[in-house]
């Protein structure tokens, strides 16, 4: 499942668009500190993040990203260009 998510994120071209973003660790992005990252919170750190990509990263479909879900999204976006 994770590989499918990462592949879809790369397919959306996010990996290169947000390489220069700073402060993208989970605690910084979770600005209301409720333990999950909403789409709005994620888009502060990742302005080019689409709702489609967010939903793809939200593997349990609860509308917010857990730390694990967010880490997978961040790892996909932060991965070195191939
Ligand atoms: Ca939050
Ligand atoms: Ca979730």
UniProtKB/TrEMBL annotation:
Boundaries of every EF-hand domain copy: 45-80
Signal peptide feature range: 1-22
Chain coiled-coil ranges: none
Domain of life: Bacteria
Key words, A-Z: Signal
PROSITE patterns in the cross-refs: EF_HAND_1 (PS00018), EF_HAND_2 (PS50222)
Pfam family for this entry, one: EF-hand_5
Protein name from the UniProt record: EF-hand domain-containing protein
Organism: Devosia honganensis
């Amino acid at each position: 499942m994770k590989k499918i998510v990462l592949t879809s994120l790369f397919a959306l071209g996010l990996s290169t668009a947000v390489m220069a973003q700073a402060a993208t660790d989970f605690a910084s992005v979770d600005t209301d500190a409720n333990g999950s990252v909403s789409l709005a919170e994620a888009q502060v750190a990742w302005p080019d993040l689409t709702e489609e990509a967010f939903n793809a990263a939200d593997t349990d479909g609860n509308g917010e990203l857990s730390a694990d879900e967010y880490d997978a999204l961040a790892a996909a976006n932060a991965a070195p260009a191939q």
